[in-house]
């Protein structure tokens, strides 16, 4: 298990270097690197939202300009270009700084904030991705890799990095907000499905808190809810309200009290 964002980012870069060295890295961009805030100690165990993978924004040059990066890294091509002969600490620092800035600008993150305001305002939360490949087209990008057996190990290694990050963050609840990511995790070894207790005719899901039924857990410990994307018009207001209810119920089932 890694101890901080520096550790997880070094692990991510090592993964990119490994696959680049054998000539099988299927991307020309730097991977997602995490700001220190993702792993900083919170006042309480919060909610962890999980997406599929980071996108490449069309207005990336504008975002980079706003982020006031150092040195020559003032365009998307210069900042995120991979491969590199040797990892440059200044470029690494700027990739992380860009990620910090992007989190304050993307509508994706605003949609998560709206959901938190609807379900449990004031509670700590964090956002990470299952995969680290920067690509807006999930069908042609990560989706294409999923269907290609040559990259199954590459994707599995990223899921292990994800699991390591989850353990370090130690959330009280995980909410996967991407249908494809949910489908992948549904079959991942890190996720345990609670089985029916046929002897008693009851289920082992623990009927808790106004009928909330817990069906899956990460590492047999942290409850996990699967959902579709919040942004991009993929979720209507009623589905959003239902997801907020599930989050509230899951927290109540663990005896969690949150600020009004």
Number of structural units classed as domains:
2
Largest sheet: 6 strands, mixed
Top-tier CATH class of the largest domain: Alpha Beta
Radius of gyration: 19 Å
Number of DSSP helices?
A: 9
Number of strands: 10
What is the compact description of this entry?
The protein has 9 helices and 10 strands.
Secondary-structure blueprint:
Blueprint: H1 5-21, E1 47-51, H2 60-67, H3 76-80, H4 89-103, H5 107-119, E2 125-129, H6 142-146, H7 152-169, E3 173-177, H8 179-186, E4 191-193, E5 196-197, E6 202-203, E7 207-208, E8 212-213, E9 216-218, E10 222-227, H9 237-253
Parallel strand pairs: 1-2, 1-3, 3-10
Antiparallel strand pairs: 4-9, 5-6, 7-8, 9-10
Helix pairs in contact: 1-7, 2-4, 5-9
What this model shows, in words?
- The chain has 260 residues and is α/β, with parallel strands linked by helices.
- It has two domains: 7-30 and 58-105, no CATH class; 42-55 and 110-260, Uracil-DNA Glycosylase, subunit E (3-Layer(aba) Sandwich).
- It is built from nine helices and ten strands.
- The chain has helices at 5-21, 60-67, 76-80, 89-103, 107-119, 142-146, 152-169, 179-186, 237-253; strands at residues 47-51, 125-129, 173-177, 191-193, 196-197, 202-203, 207-208, 212-213, 216-218, 222-227.
- A six-stranded mixed sheet has the order 2-1-3-10-9-4, sandwiched between helices. A two-stranded antiparallel ribbon has the order 5-6. Strands 7-8 form a two-stranded antiparallel sheet.
- It is globular, with a radius of gyration of 19 Å.
- Residues 196-212 have low confidence and may be disordered.
């Amino acid at each position: 298990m890694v101890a901080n964002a520096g550790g997880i980012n070094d692990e991510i870069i090592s993964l990119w270097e490994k696959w680049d060295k054998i000539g099988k890295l299927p991307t020309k961009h730097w991977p997602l690197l995490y700001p220190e805030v993702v792993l900083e100690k919170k006042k309480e165990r919060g909610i962890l939202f999980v997406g599929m993978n980071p996108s490449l924004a069309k207005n990336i040059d504008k975002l980079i300009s706003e982020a006031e990066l150092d040195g020559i890294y003032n365009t998307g091509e210069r900042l995120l270009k991979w491969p590199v002969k040797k990892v440059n600490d200044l470029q690494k620092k700027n990739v992380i700084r860009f990620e910090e800035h992007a989190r304050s600008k993307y509508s994706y993150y605003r949609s998560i904030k709206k959901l938190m305001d609807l379900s449990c305002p004031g509670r700590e939360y964090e956002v990470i991705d299952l995969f680290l490949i920067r690509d807006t087209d999930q069908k042609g990008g990560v989706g294409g890799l999923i269907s290609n057996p040559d990259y199954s190990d590459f994707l599995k290694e990223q899921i292990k990095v994800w699991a390591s990050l989850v353990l370090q963050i130690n959330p009280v609840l995980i909410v996967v907000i991407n249908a494809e990511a949910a489908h992948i995790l549904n079959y991942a070894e890190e996720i345990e499905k609670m089985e029916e207790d046929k002897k008693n005719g009851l289920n082992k899901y623990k009927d808790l808190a106004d009928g909330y039924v817990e069906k899956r857990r990460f590492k047999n410990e942290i409850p996990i809810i699967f959902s579709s994307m919040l942004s991009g018009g993929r979720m209507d207001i009623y589905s959003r309200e239902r997801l907020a209810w599930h989050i509230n119920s899951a927290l109540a089932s663990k005896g969690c009290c949150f600020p009004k």
